[in-house]
Amino acid sequence: MSAARALYSLLTWCAQPLLRRKLRRRAVAEPAYAQAMDERFGRYPAAAIDRLLAPGGSAGRLVWLHAVSLGETRAAAVLLERLREQLPGMRLLLTHGTATGRAEGEKLLRSGDLQVWQPWDTPGAVARFLRSFRPAVGVLLDTEVWPNLVAGCRRHGVPLVLANARLSEKSLRRAQRLAALARPAYGALSAVWAQTGEDAARLRCLGAEVRGVLGNLKFDLLPNAEQLAQGRAWRAQTGRPVLMLASSREGEEALWLEHFQKARAHPAADAGQAADVQWLIVPRHPQRFDAVQQLFERAGLSVSRRSAWAALPEPADLWLGDSLGEMALYYGLADAALLGGSFAPLGGQNLIEAAACGCPVLLGPHTFNFAQAAELACAAGAAQRVAHMAAGMALATQWVHDAAQQGAASARATRFAGAHRGAAQATAQAIAAIVQSAPAPPGKPMR
């Protein structure tokens, strides 16, 4: 073990009590964080392992897929469909880092599959995880590269790959500052498949073995048809245009509120005619729903939450999207959307789902986490970049008061989403080739 990884391992080992405390605090708002906490440290009940092995007694086709949070888990869904076609009879070991990811992941499990928390990145927790399950392959999605996890897989003979891989310029600079940790980790991955050519170049700078540029799995996700239809039906009955601040992050709601109040007091201001539009705010993280509602109510605005709606959205100054797994409904309800995470320096959120729902998007200046998708969407006319929140609100208001312009933007968004599909099939074929060439694990997994 290198000196850098030895120091890192000591720090992660010492941080374990802090992690437990953080999980207990988060469990106050999201109880799932308190469930099966020992799994985070590589300790699993014997019954769970026995259940994983029960039908055939062999883990030779055990595919471990790590999807840290909600977005990655949704992308994993379409990849899993293709993987099950490529590897009939495979069993799935699904790991996550967040409660929302784990809740979404439950929908992907079949008989013989198992779901556990991602092991904390200490050598001991990683070793216990790998000895317990001995997967035929490990698949990390997007950016989830952990030094001890990669080193442990190499030591235990588990091929570990990074699929749907992306790396922003900011992340590359940070990794280069920690090159003594990052380069061995990226270099020890068995294979990397990048989303874009730019991602591939940056990953190679860290020593990753990039075997191809296969595109973004999220383009292969189709929106929930029932939700989309419901949202569009509600939109038709609202009587006025609907604009959304989608997947908003901390600080952006306050920024939006500042310009909304100015626009309402002075309808001719740059932020547009706010009184003519129904606004829908959908925060990115569920633990912030109550705080966002309180922010608006303290400003004197009435708020109607999605969780209280029955047949139709209830009248209010603002609608608050406080549900999980219903973004297709919200995008169907909206005539256009401002993309959260892009108006604060947070790198933006995924715009692909909006495009697939035919909802044109306004982007703020900060989209480094989805740089190429943002550039392609703007080039295709499915999105447009603005300098700040006020400009986005003004342009969105202009769009929705021009039916021809909004309809054309919606059609361009739909075409853009459909033009970039195919990553799931190509990625599944590449992973299957590694599984089929890997030797079967020796014997029954240890506890």
Automatic annotation (TrEMBL):
<comment type="function">
    <text>Involved in lipopolysaccharide (LPS) biosynthesis. Catalyzes the transfer of 3-deoxy-D-manno-octulosonate (Kdo) residue(s) from CMP-Kdo to lipid IV(A), the tetraacyldisaccharide-1,4'-bisphosphate precursor of lipid A.</text>
</comment>
<dbReference type="InterPro" id="IPR039901">
    <property type="entry name" value="Kdotransferase"/>
</dbReference>
<keyword id="KW-0448">Lipopolysaccharide biosynthesis</keyword>
<dbReference type="InterPro" id="IPR038107">
    <property type="entry name" value="Glycos_transf_N_sf"/>
</dbReference>
<keyword id="KW-0808">Transferase</keyword>
<dbReference type="Pfam" id="PF04413">
    <property type="entry name" value="Glycos_transf_N"/>
</dbReference>
<comment type="similarity">
    <text>Belongs to the glycosyltransferase group 1 family.</text>
</comment>
<dbReference type="GO" id="GO:0016740">
    <property type="term" value="F:transferase activity"/>
</dbReference>
<protein>
    <recommendedName>
        <fullName>3-deoxy-D-manno-octulosonic acid transferase</fullName>
        <ecNumber>2.4.99.12</ecNumber>
    </recommendedName>
</protein>
<keyword id="KW-0472">Membrane</keyword>
<feature type="domain" description="3-deoxy-D-manno-octulosonic-acid transferase N-terminal">
    <location>
        <begin position="36"/>
        <end position="220"/>
    </location>
</feature>
<dbReference type="InterPro" id="IPR007507">
    <property type="entry name" value="Glycos_transf_N"/>
</dbReference>
<keyword id="KW-1003">Cell membrane</keyword>
<comment type="pathway">
    <text>Bacterial outer membrane biogenesis; LPS core biosynthesis.</text>
</comment>
